Amino acid sequence: TECTVVLDVIFKDAPEIVCPSEPSVFTICEPTQLCVDLPISPEDAQITVSNGIYINGQLCLDVAADGTYSILVTAVNECGTAECTVVFDVNMEEAPAIDCPVEPITFELCESQEICLDLGVSPENAEITVSNGVYVNGQLCLNVSEAGEYVIEVSAANECGTANCTVIFNVIFKESPAITCPAEPLAFTICDPMELCLDLPITPAGAEITVSAGTYSNGRLCLPVDDGGIYSVLVTAVNECGTAECTVVFNVTDEDPPVIDCPAEPVVFQLCEPGEVCYNLGIIPEDAEITVSQGTYSNGVLCLNVSESGTYSVDFSAANDCGTDPCTVT
């Protein structure tokens, strides 16, 4: 008797995992599930994982925070066991944010220069772009040479989104102080102690003004004086952009009011024929302005042409800045 036995022999493969040689790096913005392709053969191998799940050829893990996650994957069948450690290197990223100023930023400058604004941006590794100027070391900077309004668009971006900010620089150029300084000494004549004033334009209006003597107010420099003489006043104007100085010289003459040595009685002349009669009439000061109603006055002498006997009255006055002295000579 014969018997034929048929043996159906199948050679199975030992399990094999295509294990990644490096950690798998992920950046996430919120809690999520991360997956990596992880081929395992044969398909019917029994697979276990120390964390997460293995499905459809992928190893997946739910993560909610930064960290390094190591997962041991094991594949087993009748022919052996294969192991693989898969590393998830997870960086939890935040969406960008810019500490954006609500109002325009005003800069008061004296000259062309670079202006900067501290502009907080997070996270630090966000990619920053600006429409004008530069952003470096937490500052937005711009070179300006003219007054005006400068609008700069700033954006910060990463894998988690983009933040936008509009920054407005309001640039004002201030002028250095300037004094319209008189080139020559200023002549004044006084009759009594008094305050002398002159217009002294100073720009800009906000400059800080100091004087070595007297006062400065409403565009005028004033100095009280008692006597004649030369008075020098140093005027200084200061602001953030510089200093201007001016020395104003007051040349003061102290003058007296005019006095005429007026005769108290009529002056009598005896003539033989028509002619000119003259009378010495002393006046101080000598430079007083003289007026006569008739006749002439020259070199201290009052003269009158007469043609007949009679009484002649001459109204005479001497005047200067300090007053007038009248006199009637008969």
Strand and helix layout:
Elements: E1 16-17, E2 24-28, E3 32-37, E4 40-41, E5 46-49, E6 53-55, E7 58-63, E8 67-77, E9 80-92, E10 97-98, E11 105-109, E12 113-118, E13 121-122, E14 127-130, E15 134-136, E16 139-144, E17 148-158, E18 161-173, E19 178-179, E20 186-190, E21 194-199, E22 202-203, E23 208-211, E24 215-217, E25 220-225, E26 229-239, E27 242-254, E28 259-260, E29 275-280, E30 283-284, E31 289-292, E32 296-298, E33 301-306, E34 314-320, E35 323-329
Parallel strand pairs: 2-9, 11-18, 20-27
Antiparallel strand pairs: 1-4, 3-7, 5-8, 6-7, 8-9, 10-13, 12-16, 14-17, 15-16, 17-18, 19-22, 21-25, 23-26, 24-25, 26-27, 28-30, 29-33, 31-34, 32-33, 34-35
Q: Which structural class best describes the helix and strand composition?
A: mainly beta
- What fraction of the residues are assigned to beta strands by DSSP? over 45%
Helical segment count = 0
Q: Radius of gyration, Cα only, in angstroms?
A: 53 Å
Descriptive account of the structure:
There is one protein chain. The chain has 330 residues and is an all-beta fold. The chain has strands at 16-17, 24-28, 32-37, 40-41, 46-49, 53-55, 58-63, 67-77, 80-92, 97-98, 105-109, 113-118, 121-122, 127-130, 134-136, 139-144, 148-158, 161-173, 178-179, 186-190, 194-199, 202-203, 208-211, 215-217, 220-225, 229-239, 242-254, 259-260, 275-280, 283-284, 289-292, 296-298, 301-306, 314-320, 323-329. The strands form 12 sheets. A 4-stranded mixed sheet has the order 2-9-8-5, with no helix packed on it. A 4-stranded mixed sheet has the order 11-18-17-14, with no helix packed on it. The mean pLDDT is 92.
